[in-house]
Please model this.
Amino acid sequence: MKNRSSTGILLPLTKKYARTLAKSPLPGIPRSILLLIVVALLFISVQFRGRVFAGASERAVQQEAGPVAYEVDSHFDPKDVAVNSRTNRIYVSLRGVGELLIIEGSDNSHRSVQVGIQPDKVAVNEKTDKVYVSNLVSGTVSVVEGDGSSVATVRVGGERNISDISVNTATNMVYAVNLEKDSVVEINGADNSTKTIKVGKTPESVAINSRTNKIYVTNRGANSVSIIDGTSHSVEEVTVGELPRFLTVDPDRNKIFVVNERGHSVTIIDGKDNSTKTVKVGEYPSAVGFSKRTGKVYVANEVDGTVTVVDPPDLSFETVNVGRAPNVISVDQTGDLIYVGNASDGTISIIDGATNGVQTLDAGGLPNAIAVNPVSQRVYVSNFSKGEIMVFAPPVVIKPKG
Model:
């Protein structure tokens, strides 16, 4: 099984510059010094060249699971990952170089486009084939055509701390959280016009129920969630646990799950009447996901090295052991597999949603974002520490719990 690789940017440019220095010495600089510069440039280019691995090769099948196979050039410092399952393209924010990496899922060929300073969160509108990137310190959102053919910049206020972004595909509205200004900026996907909506103190994360056109924002400085009506822009505030940071929405059941980091709990908001229930989980919950198939909620507990599986109807729960310092979760809604990134030991734990059995695989570095393509069932993991994108492909063999 072969994979076509495309040429990266950093390495060829550095080689070209090195050759120029070697052939055309600068006045006053000895050739020996120039040669040392050439060697240093080539060394740096190799060290900072990222990697993209793809799985499901013959070797991977023989080993039953794992991202082992071939490598193509990439950039370094990948942060967030998002997938457009319709076009089979994967998008990775490259914080270190201010770019968005675009990977073709069919062959892992890739290219990149320039966005803002320190790009962070990535959101995709599959209907319009546009990608939205929050630029952490420049107070902007980059709007990128899905093929990378054009990039527009939208200023959303402030000079820093655009902490999260999400898309309502039903209304073609985009919501960017401005932590510095205690607000959410609504971007109209049709013309990039904006409207600022005040929320609670120190907002951090945003999630949307596209069926009800409600936008939910965690306010970690107010121990609350702001609920924005996407039509009227009215805002209601609901009290949750201590230090709410992350959340996710189950649109089918109209439930909102809020992780309260310091409260060591998850608050479940009923979208019908905004009533709440809170259930204790492990120490310092740091990520949350849910299964569309079962309605179960998965909460990563960073200190415990566990995932709490909560069944919302009766609030019963089960604890699953994973790797050390789990801090990111993504759910394969097609295969009902839950992927957990473990920061301290550089692994990915895969939980079988039917049995809670766990298989742990080497992630090659610090996993800090995971995205699943529900069509191909390929899983993309960014490793910030090594500048790598790992690609897990089926089949994945899960050990039964017990």
The radius of gyration is 22 Å. The chain has two domains: 1-48, 50-392. The chain has a mean pLDDT of 83. Residues 74 and 331 are 25 Å apart (CA to CA).
